[in-house]
Design goal:
With about 500 residues, the protein is α+β, with helices and mostly antiparallel strands. The protein contains 6 helices and 29 strands. The chain has 4 domains: about 100 residues, PH-domain like (Roll); about 140 residues, Roll (Pdz3 Domain); about 110 residues, PH-domain like; about 120 residues, PH-domain like. The strands form 6 sheets. The protein has a 7-stranded antiparallel beta sheet, covered by helices on one side. A 7-stranded antiparallel beta sheet has the order 19-18-17-16-22-21-20. A 5-stranded antiparallel beta sheet has the order 8-7-9-4-11, with no helix packed on it. One of its GO terms (cellular component) is cytoskeleton. It comes from Gasterosteus aculeatus aculeatus.
């Protein structure tokens, strides 16, 4: 049984990107519902003292068999430094965290080899002795030939004879550091220049492209020339992905279609409402009880900012964001107000935290109420179902709240469905305010009440989700609401803002 909760595309893959006239370089693409993340490889220090240079100094010793266990490519004749292209598998554990494929060799035993040709670097390494100290720097944008599949390696014989000119597609193995008099049988050992430092090769964010209102372009700017297996993604504020290059036309088309699908979905579920509010401070002092905040209901989320989002990048810098169907909004009546401020509403988050906001006018309050209703309805209609892990009678289960099917409980291991009930069969519920919920369902045949007790790690998120699905179900069945698309709140639509945040599931009846 498939309990997929979203029909938007999510994809990840490693491809090439080109900027301007630079050589293409490897990047990793990750497509989420509303953002395209472009990552590049980098070597970073993950432990030890802070560092302020991308250069590392590593000392390694040679083995009798296998030499230094490295292979190199490149050189000044290729307009790049010599680059480490292979690290022998049998020595990988010894070199882990110190040297990486893609490291450019800048110095060998203090000799600056940045401008050396490939063969000159080979000769320096031949004569380096039993121990060599390398100064290296990871080349994020290593030329494309390092990324391509290798042809047969240029594995030169262990002698002082010249290895010849290296082809860009052909490695020189560093076992050619062999010395006839070498009888050293010590295993290869590698140490960072500064004890305590640990380095890792990681994918790090290079660029974030928010997809809302983004456009795709397969053509060279201003022309009718179509790029081969490549395109760009341009955000609404002009941020550009660079030219994304794919190995095949099918790959390119697949990504184009996935991006277009997500952009289209975001366009349908655009910003519903946003504006300034005053938030009551949690630990308020007498002269600072409220702080101005900017709230935005957009797509699946409620965003809270300290300043309005001006560019698409700003949407990634919200102070907090909450999924709309897992929070609860309540308009505060006179007896619910916390102080002398009027026109207030509260938001209970999925963790049970209560946030309180004030607006200036009653009409603003009504707008926020309708905005929450519409945002929740659209998001529930979009996702169709939501599944939560739970415990029932000491067994790990899953509970799916499904817009069409109602409540479905299944075994987490076997995926076998244990029970299912329509929304109309829920006659009541109670919870302990911590983790447990007891549902009371009416059996359609016997009309008897059947109790089901489940335990969740996130009680409030589940309760709020159930509230949202109930309200959206009723709204969906009201033709006036569906036709109005939020222009008016129809009679009989159960306002999410009027449902109390007292952890009591509403008893709603409707035709199914």
């Amino acid at each position: 049984m498939d309990f997929k909760t979203s029909n938007e595309e999510t994809k990840t893959g490693i491809y090439l990107m080109q900027e301007g006239n630079e050589e293409p370089f490897n990047i990793r693409l990750h497509l989420a519902r509303d953002i395209l993340t472009i990552q590049e490889q980098d070597v970073i220090c993950v432990s030890g003292e802070p560092f302020y240079s991308s250069e590392r100094t590593v000392t390694i010793r040679r083995q009798t068999i296998g030499g230094f266990g490295l292979s190199i490519k490149g050189g000044a004749e290729h307009k790049i430094p010599v680059v480490i292209s292979k690290i022998s598998k049998e020595q990988k554990a010894e070199l882990s965290g110190l040297l990486f494929i893609g490291d450019g060799i800048l110095q060998i035993n203090g000799i600056n080899v940045r401008s050396y040709r490939h063969e000159e670097v080979v000769q320096v390494l031949r004569n380096a002795g039993e121990e060599v100290t390398l100064t290296v720097s990871f080349l994020k944008k290593t030329p494309a030939f390092l990324k391509l599949p290798l042809c047969e390696d240029c594995t030169c014989v262990p002698s002082d004879q010249s290895s010849g000119t290296s082809s860009p597609l052909c490695d020189s193995g560093l076992h050619l550091n062999y010395h006839p008099n070498n009888t050293d049988t010590l295993s290869c050992s590698s140490w960072p220049a500064c004890p305590g430092l640990r380095w890792e090769k990681r994918w790090v964010d290079l660029r974030l492209i928010p997809l809302l209102h983004s456009r795709l372009s397969q053509y060279n700017p201003g022309s009718d020339v179509c790029r081969k297996n490549a395109f760009q993604v341009i955000a609404v504020d002009g941020v550009c992905s660079g030219v994304l290059q794919f190995l095949t036309a099918d790959d390119c088309l697949d990504w184009l279609q996935a991006l277009a699908s997500n952009i289209s979905s975001l366009t349908k579920h655009n910003i519903i409402y946003m504006g300034w509010v005053d938030e009551k401070e949690q630990d308020s002092v007498q002269d600072r009880m409220y702080s101005p905040k900017f709230l935005a209901l957009r797509g699946s989320s409620l965003f809270k900012f300290s300043a309005p989002p001006v560019t698409t990048w700003d949407w990634t810098r919200a102070e907090k964001s909450f999924t709309v169907y897992e929070i609860m909004c309540k308009i505060l009546k006179d007896n619910d107000l916390l102080d002398k401020r009027k026109h207030c509403f509260g938001v209970q988050t999925e963790s049970g935290e209560d946030l309180f906001f004030s607006v200036e006018l009653e009409c603003e309050l009504l707008i926020w109420e309708k905005a929450f209703q519409m945002a929740t309805f659209l998001e529930v209609e979009r996702i169709q179902c939501k599944t939560y892990a739970c415990i029932m009678e000491s067994h790990l289960m899953g509970l799916t709240v499904d817009f069409g099917a109602g409540f479905v409980c299944f075994d987490a291991a076997s995926k076998a469905v244990l029970w299912r009930y329509k929304f109309s069969q829920l006659k009541g519920s109670s919870d302990d305010g911590k983790s447990k919920i007891k549902f009371l369902f009416q059996n359609q045949d016997s009309k008897s009440i059947e109790a089901k007790e489940l335990e969740f790690s996130n009680l409030f998120a589940v309760l709020h989700c159930i509230h949202a699905f109930f309200a959206a179900k009723v709204a969906c069945l009201d033709p006036i609401f569906v036709e109005s698309q939020g222009n008016a709140t129809p009679a009989g639509f159960p306002s999410l803002c009027s449902i109390s945040c007292n952890s009591q599931t509403p008893k709603l009846k409707y035709a199914t």
